[in-house]
Design brief:
368 residues, Rossmann fold, alpha/beta, Hypothetical protein af1432, 13 helices, 2 domains
């Protein structure tokens, strides 16, 4: 590969000096361009130059003003100052301003002169190499980041697909279970609808509503592995049968436990039969130990159970069930949740599941 000729810019108001220095540099094989002052330097300087030689005393824009301007441009081109004998204090000041080196005039030792020029060119070469390496590194990081982002998108898409497939499979299994029992058919769908309705009425964030919907969909998933044939028998259930039924929340929580994306749903499923007074099951949690989503599911699940037909009891009307919720508000159910639900459910039922929350925009329920 052919070696590039170094390009040098000279600024001096003395035409004789410019001519002499130019000839010396050209003799050493450099490309030279000259200007008469600092303004000329700023007008033409660019990254094609490898070294700049500045006289200190120039009209309008002297060497010190010029190096200030060059520092602002941030081209990182080595600057050598030309200074006459006896002006060493100027040279020191120039170096403090960022000059690479200084040259004394008249030039007497050509070898030393050429060595200083070569060193300045080498510095410029290192600067350009570092700049090139940095850019290449940044490009490499950017490309790898883009690839990683693309891979993350693919993984997220795969994860979402897997989640959706899992949810669909579980939904199908649960629907099949409910369809075998006349008394529980449609229970999950209704509970889910009630939960979604109530979550919207309470202005829950969208991500909370997603968790609530999924928890409602699978709150009874534990019944898949429990023999609940006793539910269909005539008459009341025995203590042993009630004990068996009460296992379904913990069994359901264990079913979804391996699914990392349903961690919060697992808590809600396990505790949807708890009570505010701590007399529920399976863990006897109470009050603030139950989060808002669990409190919602407790209310809507109980409401549907009360208004659904059972072989061992008569189902309640909507008005009777709401009255029961309010009677048990504060002991079994969260009072705020009951108030919201009591306000929403009548309109929900009257519009045949085409519930509208527009009238709730300015509705404010105060907690007891």
């Amino acid at each position: 590969m052919e070696k590039k000729q170094a390009k040098i810019l000279i600024a001096d108001d003395d035409a004789m000096v410019r001519s002499t220095v130019s000839k010396i540099l050209e003799m050493f094989g450099y490309i030279v361009q000259t200007v008469s002052d600092g303004t000329g330097v700023i007008d033409i300087v660019n990254n094609s130059f490898d070294v700049i030689i500045l006289d200190i005393n120039m009209p309008e824009m002297d060497g010190f003003d010029t190096i200030h301007a060059l520092n602002v441009l941030d081209l990182n081109i080595p600057v050598l100052f030309l200074t006459g004998a006896g002006s060493m204090d100027y040279a020191v000041k120039a170096i403090n301003l960022g000059a690479y080196d200084f040259l004394t005039k008249p030039i007497e030792d050509l070898d030393i002169f050429n060595v200083k020029i070569r060193r300045a060119i080498e510095k410029r070469m290192y600067v350009l190499q570092e700049r090139h390496y940095k850019k290449a590194l940044e490009d490499d990081v950017r490309i790898k980041a883009e690839k990683l982002e693309e891979q993350n998108k693919l993984l997220l898409s795969y994860s979402n697909s897997l989640e959706n497939a899992t949810v669909q499979l579980m939904t199908s299994l649960q629907n099949a279970m409910e369809e075998k029992d006349y008394y529980t058919a449609g229970h999950t769908t209704r509970v889910t609808d009630y939960a979604v309705m109530l979550g919207r009425a309470m202005n829950l964030p969208e991500e909370e509503q997603v968790v609530l919907r999924r928890a409602a969909q699978f709150h009874d998933i534990g019944k898949l592995v429990i023999d609940l044939s006793c539910i269909q028998k005539p008459g009341k259930l025995t203590d042993e049968e009630w004990l068996l039924i009460r296992k379904h929340p913990s069994v359901g929580a264990n079913i979804v436990k391996p699914l990392g994306f349903m961690k919060r749903e697992q808590f809600i499923i396990r505790h949807h039969h708890e009570r505010m007074d701590g007399k529920g099951y399976p863990d006897g949690l109470k009050g603030d130990a139950l989060d808002t989503l669990t409190k919602i599911l407790i209310v809507v699940d109980s409401y549907d159970a009360m208004t659904s037909r059972r072989n061992y009891r008569k189902n309640l009307t909507m008005e009777e069930a709401i009255a029961e919720l309010n009677t048990c508000s504060g002991t079994q159910f969260d009072p705020v949740t009951v108030k919201y639900f009591s306000t929403c459910i009548a309109d929900y039922v009257s519009t045949n599941n085409a519930f509208s929350l527009e009238y709730l925009d300015n509705f404010d329920i105060q907690e007891n």
